[in-house]
Design goal:
This protein is an alpha+beta fold. The protein has 2 domains: about 25-65, no CATH class; about 70-170, Tetrahydropterin Synthase, Chain A, CATH 3.30.479. About 40% of the residues lie in helices and about 35% in strands. It has 5 helices and 8 strands. The protein has helices at about 1-25, 100-105, 110-125, 130-135, 135-150, and strands at about 25-30, 35-40, 40-45, 50-55, 60-65, 70-80, 85-95, 155-170. The strands form 3 sheets. A 3-stranded antiparallel beta sheet has the order 3-2-5. Strands 6-7-8 form a 3-stranded antiparallel beta sheet. The protein starts with a helix and ends in a 9-residue tail after the last strand.
Amino acid sequence: MDSGAFFGVALLVILVFCLFLLAKSARIVRQYEKGLVMRLGKFHALAPSGLALIMPIVDDLIRVDMREQVITVPPQKLITKDNVTVEVDAVVYYKVVDPMKSQFEVQDFGYACTTLAQTNLRNLIGDRTLDETLVARDMINSNLRHVLDEATNNWGSKPREWKFRRSSRRAISRTPCLAR
């Protein structure tokens, strides 16, 4: 009877362990996500939406959101060609097109995109007068979109739209030099 009880307990332990492994291997990838299967820290496969079965303990699943997302570019003060300070903030709408590149080619897409947009916006507005800046908003948008497209192509994401949310201006006072 001792061997029968031992066999029953061993069978129960094996059954519980198998159920545990089955639960660890089943992953659900939502409809708006793609899954990257990492086997021992290296990319192995792309898991589509739905139920994904992975090897427990050896594999890991990274979920990548494929929906369009928004990055807010914080307000910054820029100086135009005619020495007028303009404060501009904006939003960038982007969508991940390649989940593998989006995870492995850039560490923080939001920060990289914001910094790139701020730098290029500074250059674009700095080369124009205030009147040219106000009139050429569409041209500035298209130039900035082009620059972001080129840079983010390797990052697996595509900026869909760039919009100025608010811009305010304030003239820098010039004090005349007093000659004696």
